[in-house]
Amino acid sequence: MDPISTLFLDTDQPASRIVRAMAAIGSATASQLVQATGLARSTVSTLLTELRETGVVIELDSRSTGFGRPSQLLSLNPARGRCAGVLLGLGEIRISVCDLTHSVLSDVWLPINLDYSPEEAARAVRKSLEQQCDTLGIRISDLLGVGLAISAPLSFEGKVLNGDVLPTWNGVDIASVFAAELDCPIHAENESHCGALAEMTWGAAMGEKNFILFKFDLGVGGAIVLDGAVHRGTFGNAAEFGHLVLDPRGELCRCGSRGCLTLSVGAFHLLRKAEEFTGHPVSIDEFIEHARAGHIGYRRLVEDAADIAGWGMGLTATILNPPLFVIAGKLAMVGDFFVERLQKSFERHTLPQMEVQGKGRPRFVVGKFLGNDDTVMGAVALVLHQHGKVTASHEGG
Ligand SMILES: [Zn+2]
């Protein structure tokens, strides 16, 4: 096994802590690594010398930081480890191979029939990954791991729970299905949780230990991050904000409840409404373009959705009192008026906070990774953090 893979897997060794911290942060100075790992300065210094000698860590040109800082900037050697992120989406699968400095080396979108089975998905991913790895001159078994982002919550045993987008996957042990095809460690996680990992690692929530992410896309998902970790709840389906019941006598939701938030805010609902007034089907990208351009009907639909979404966000703040909300998903691309409207509605629907030196209100930020980037990058982050509780290995591996 490649030594760097061992360092990722051996979670208790100080050298592993340094490698994982560098994988999460990207480039870092020795002082930043002392802070990130909690190890003694002398230990970090000794281990960095060893890691440089074995080629696991490389020195970056410190002039490239542009600020004349005397500290040497270090990075994992990108040639020494690669991993893949896979988004199992609606009618398409996206597969990205990245190196340890988070650079995307190859990125493929595969169209697939809407009701694809987990086994079909695993075979399609293997085929594509084989080709991608071949182009990069490596094998699938050289990958540090493959992270799978799924549009459904997962139990701690790795079983798909109540799949909104992929209902036929209920109860499937997804990592094991993929482990039968792919000769490397597999990690699986709910796509919104992957999105939170991507934002924590490289995006709008870097350095934030506590926040709530709301993802507004075809459906509505979310993540709760507490003390730097995604909170999954007792059975793995925490933060399913799309199914907050806002109207007990409302429309029936596919989850079995009535009046769920997603029925008024999910883009699938907005697209249906748009079709009613345009008389023809509208894609989510067209919808966003029209709303951005200020077309009155589209804009009104977004404002109505923001009013209801802010209500749901207010409920979560009354319960958890977070310092930060990250707004993710394609709907966040429609423009500032969406977030402004969300915030107004939020204020109306949460417990008024005492202003303590201007700190009473949570901050609202738009995610860095909108569209599908958050989930696929989150799946990569999943491998790099070894965050996934749901792990499987190839039987013959
Ligand atoms: Zn529901």
CATH superfamily of the largest domain: ATPase, nucleotide binding domain
What's the CATH class label of the largest domain?
Answer: Alpha Beta
Major sheet: order of its strands?
5-4-3-6-7-13
Average of the residue pLDDT scores: 86
Indicate the structural class: alpha/beta
Q: Enumerate the spans where pLDDT stays under 50 for 5 or more consecutive residues.
A: 387-391
Can you describe this structure?
It is a single chain. The protein is built from 13 helices and 13 strands. It is α/β, with parallel strands linked by helices. It has three domains: 77 residues, Arc Repressor Mutant, subunit A, CATH 1.10.10.10; 133 residues, Nucleotidyltransferase, domain 5, CATH 3.30.420.40; 162 residues, Nucleotidyltransferase, domain 5. Strand 4 and strand 5 form a beta hairpin. The longest helix has 25 residues. The chain is globular.
Summarize the structure.
The chain is α/β, with parallel strands linked by helices and 397 residues long. The protein has helices spanning 3-9, 14-25, 30-37, 41-53, 118-136, 174-179, 191-202, 262-265, 267-278, 284-292, 296-320, 336-348, 373-385, and strands at 57-59, 74-76, 82-88, 92-99, 104-111, 146-150, 186-190, 211-216, 220-226, 229-230, 324-328, 363-366, 391-392. The chain contains 13 helices and 13 strands.
